[in-house]
Write a structure and sequence with these properties.
Radius of gyration: 19 Å
Number of domains: 1
CATH class: Alpha Beta
Number of helices: 6
Helix content: 25-40%
CATH topology: Alpha-Beta Plaits
Length: 263
């Protein structure tokens, strides 16, 4: 008997994003209708897979069978848990596939990886990176921007998605709240200059190694490059301890992403 995921009904507000506290060393307003603190507390998981090159030496027919099986499993998972797939092939050497998920409990993430690794393709997969976080209301959000809001949206499903884990220096947390709020104002101003870049902030304090795991969606990676470069020039950037590794991915269906592996 195969695995079946217990269906988790996700609040519609899961991706109705708030203004992210941590964006690239500070904070950028997130496009979307801000959820309340209770409804926004959803767990977020980014699971990266790396394919063993020996898989490409299998017969073409066997590779096709593996892709069909694995894509069917991922599609089935997506019926019970909000899931998106992305390819990193040709963009980064130490990871090939990303599963992006959201759920009200972390157990379903474990079930997901167990099912994927249990496929024929899974015998050739490792998980070099994995990030767990939770969404919640930013302590720095003081106002809304109706022109940048979009109701009932979990994701914009734009072509490119960048995963950006980040840790701040302890000196940041030693600043008075008023000072941090003031410094954040500069980030809001810069963020408003790049409405084509959408951000989702997950908080990882105590759950994983980073403090924040940021997700950026865009159709033009050049816009994101310019945004990050601009943010380097303001004072808040000096409070960033680390913001690597950074993963640039391309959104695809499960089958399309798996086919980029060489099937």
């Amino acid at each position: 008997m195969g695995w079946r995921l217990r269906s988790h009904r996700l609040p519609r507000a899961w991706m109705q994003v708030t203004e992210g506290e941590a964006a690239v060393g500070g904070s950028i307003p997130m496009t979307g209708q801000p959820p309340n603190a209770e409804s926004s507390r959803e767990f977020v998981k980014y699971t990266f897979f790396k394919l063993d090159r020996s898989w490409r030496r299998l017969e073409a027919g066997q590779r096709r069978e593996h892709i069909a099986e694995a894509s069917a499993v991922i599609d089935d998972i997506a019926t019970a848990c909000w899931t998106r797939t992305y390819s990193l092939v040709g963009l980064r050497g130490d990871a090939d596939l990303l599963l992006r998920q959201a759920a009200p409990a972390v157990d379903i993430f474990q079930t997901t990886v167990t099912r994927v690794l249990g496929t024929g393709l899974g015998a050739y997969l490792d998980t070099p990176y994995s990030y767990l976080g939770m969404t919640k209301k930013s302590p720095y959000r003081t106002h809304r921007h109706p022109e940048m809001e979009s109701r009932d949206r979990r994701s914009w499903d734009l072509k490119y998605f960048v995963v950006y884990p980040m840790v701040k220096k302890r000196s940041w947390y030693a600043l008075p709240q008023e000072e941090r709020q003031k410094l954040m104002g500069e980030h809001f101003k810069i963020g408003h200059k790049y409405p084509t870049v959408k951000i989702n902030t997950a908080y990882s304090f105590g759950l994983d190694d980073p403090e924040f795991v940021l997700g950026f969606e865009m159709d033009d990676p050049g816009d994101f490059l310019q945004l990050v470069e601009d943010l380097r020039l303001i004072p808040t950037s000096q409070y960033t301890e680390s913001e690597t590794p950074i993963f640039t991915t391309i959104r695809m269906s499960a089958r399309e992403a798996l086919q980029t592996l060489g099937g």
